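quick q for whoever's on today - can somebody do inverse folding on this one?? i tried earlier but teh output was garbage lol. tokens:
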């Protein structure tokens, strides 16, 4: 499985608890680097770089917005936290409006990838 398919598999398919029951080393280093690059581009409000990375990794904004977690926040909330309004605007125009997410924070969340980026 190539790295791009691996990214989609981790983010979309929700490897039922795998990310939470095994050490962080279980994630392929290349995959982790790609996800960290998305969080860093978001934090730095580098919309063009984020867009090129999402295209390079053959991903969709909706999948990233719903599956990637940076420093414990959804990628869109992470963008707002860091005043990355350009990046937020990229997601806002591509993610369906009106969805509400209610989650049990004590429960494992398959399909979510949690990334911590040093600020």
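ok took a stab at it. sequence:
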């Amino acid at each position: 499985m190539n790295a791009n398919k691996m990214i989609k598999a981790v983010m979309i398919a929700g490897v039922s608890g795998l990310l939470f029951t095994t050490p962080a080393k279980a994630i392929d280093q290349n995959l982790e680097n790609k996800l960290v690059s998305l969080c860093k581009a978001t934090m730095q409000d580098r919309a063009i770089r984020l867009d090129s990375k999402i295209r390079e990794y053959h991903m969709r904004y909706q999948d990233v917005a719903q599956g990637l977690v940076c420093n414990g926040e959804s990628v869109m909330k992470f963008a707002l936290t860091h005043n990355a309004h350009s990046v937020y605007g990229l997601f806002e125009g591509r993610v369906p409006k009106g969805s509400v997410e209610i989650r049990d924070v004590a429960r494992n969340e398959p399909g979510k990838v949690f990334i911590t980026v040093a600020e």
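fwiw The chain has one domain: 3-115. also DSSP finds seven helices and three strands in the chain. so keep that in mind when u check it
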